[in-house]
Design a protein that fits this description.
Layout lengths: L1 E6 L4 E8 L2 E9 L4 H15 L9 E5 L5 H18 L3 E4 L4 H10 L23
Parallel strand pairs: 1-4, 4-5
Antiparallel strand pairs: 1-2, 2-3
Length: about 130
């Protein structure tokens, strides 16, 4: 089972490809404010290095936070869109063992359908300026 893993809770973004519990490849980069512009390109590079395509992905695991509101929002938007479009399961986990617990959840048949991040604090929305 080819599993895509994403972690976008801080300026250093992380993408991983696993075959079951074996890591095949990883892409870790300083995304900062360029995450939305780079994540699709980095994912494509990661897949190409393993001679894989998007339809080969059979499940997705996301690190759910806590962390950066914008980083988590971008990562989860990409992950949920891929899961929906490819008709594959998605789960979100956290903690130091987020990868292994996410793999275990997928392999046991868990599917969050729509993965949701945990920001670690209430979101503060400012009033719109006129």
């Amino acid at each position: 089972m080819l599993i895509l893993m994403l972690r976008t809770d801080n300026p250093q973004a992380e993408l991983y490809l696993f075959d079951g519990q074996q890591q095949l490849d990883a892409c870790v980069w300083q995304a900062h404010r360029e995450l939305s512009a780079a994540i699709h390109h980095r994912l494509q590079e990661l897949l190409e290095r393993q001679h894989k395509t998007l339809p080969d992905i059979a499940g997705i695991v996301c690190y759910k936070g806590p962390g950066s509101f914008t980083g988590l929002r971008i990562g989860f938007s990409v992950a949920n869109a891929l899961a929906y479009g490819l008709h594959i399961p998605i789960v979100s986990t956290n903690g130091t063992d987020w990868q292994s617990s996410g793999i275990a959840a997928l392999l046991s048949g868990q599917n969050d359908t729509v993965a949701l991040p945990e920001y670690g604090a209430p979101v503060h929305i400012t009033q719109q300026r006129k």
